[in-house]
Amino acid sequence: xxxxxxxxxxxxxxxxxxxxxxxxxxxxxxxxxxxxxxxxxxxxxxxxxxxxxxxxxxxxxxxxxxxxxxxxxxxxxxxxxxxxxxxxxxxxxxxxxxxxxxxxxxxxxxxxxxxxxxxxxxxxxxxxxxxxxxxxxxxxxxxxxxxxxxxxxxxxxxxxxxxxxxxxxxxxxxxxxxxxxxxxxxxxxxxxxxxxxxxxxxxxxxxxxxxxxxxxxxxxxxxxxxxxxxxxxxxxxxxxxxxxxxxxxxxxxxxxxxxxxxxxxxxxxxxxxxxxxxxxxxx
Length: 283
Ligand SMILES: [Zn+2]
Prior knowledge:
Bound molecules: zinc ion
Shape: globular
Low-confidence stretches: none
């Protein structure tokens, strides 16, 4: 699997000179399978530059196919949708998987985003591409181009967010953004989902001190992420979804503190990477 980060910020885009190194776009990660199928995880504003890069490929002439895995539908995970150029090209096909009790509920949420109060697009029916919706049931794996995908639900403030595990040829990638664990930590099902991941992309919104004062927002601190990675014996922990108010220097400090926390927990073998826009990784 070839992984690329297009947006690593949480909650709201954070452009400007203080966030240039890690980037200001919100959550979006692309994964290329061994068969070169495109899987997109979340559709934050990072989806826009991904879309622009795709126009020079088969997505520019209407022969593109991609799968989208949505963790949940908060703004920072769907706002790139209406600004994703391949969605306007007739012939392109997108399969969108997400939570919700039915595919029509998921479609309704994204349809609402196109309402004229919010967008000049008016309705999904004005998009040229063909879009199909699929509801994801936690614990029930499905297959996307030879990749086995399993999802589990994590608490996220007043709602929940899906974490995904992608497995291909013995390699595993886990995406767990927007996670506010209860004091006892992740559920057994979630711990099993993370187990021995080659790459665990995990919510690292806050310092432990900031999380304490913002518990109700349902995000992780670097200590929560380090604990999850240590418990899972993950090969790599990839920090993700930084608070919009954190400068690049603050994220550097988060990374150093997260490294120290991993070492303290006996997980010195777990490699630590702070995700940045443009970062590519092969597992
Ligand atoms: Zn988010």
